[in-house]
Amino acid sequence: MAASHTLLTSQVAPAPEAFQDLLKAIKQCRLCVECPRNGKPLPHAPRPVLQASPSASICIVGQAPGLRVHHSGRPFTDPSGMRLRSWLNMDEATFYDPARVALVPMGFCFPGYSASKSDLPPRVECTVWRERIFAQMPHLKLMVILGGHAQRWHLGPAVAKRGVNEVVASWRDYLEGPHGVRRFVLPHPSWRNNAWLKRNPWFAEEVLPVLRQDVAKALG
Hints:
- The chain has 220 residues and is of the alpha/beta class.
- Helices cover 38% and strands 8% of the residues.
- It has 10 helices and 4 strands.
- It has helices at residues 16-27, 31-34, 67-72, 79-88, 92-95, 127-135, 147-155, 164-169, 194-199, 202-219; strands spanning 58-61, 101-103, 142-146, 182-186.
- The longest helix is centred in the last third of the chain and has 18 residues, at 202-219.
- The radius of gyration is 16 Å and the shape is globular.
- The termini are far apart.
């Protein structure tokens, strides 16, 4: 994994054409196949999946697309997306409106499966695009940071020494981010975290009400 970063916004609004060129370049990216940085090339054809716009006020950062999203070409078209929208109290139309909500995973392509049939970690090649994306979204007011990979990259190296459970339990410590951007650290909404959610009812009782208020405020 690349070094952690805290860059979120630029003080200069970009030209829309430049942002569209950036998205086009990402969609055409084949670095993980042609120039893999760590380990083996991506075992299938790349299909980068993300959603972003210079006008977005909310950015949701996850891990990497799963197989369903790889086939659909649209972020969070799976049960995780349904749970996430419930956490945010956000309807589907708003969630998929790039003018308002950016969906920028740590890895843009489905990374494939491990020998145990779990999703592999996000591809490190995608990190070359990340600062360029965030530098061109100057209107962000809120970031939702899902899971350990995203939290380590966005919150700094100290987070790498802490587990997701400890980081999420300390969610208030991370609320105030650079440039006034509010940040929420959440577990991934995957079904794999069902047991964690049952063991930690404080998450629904304490975190989600504040998150939903901030989402409503950021959307205006």
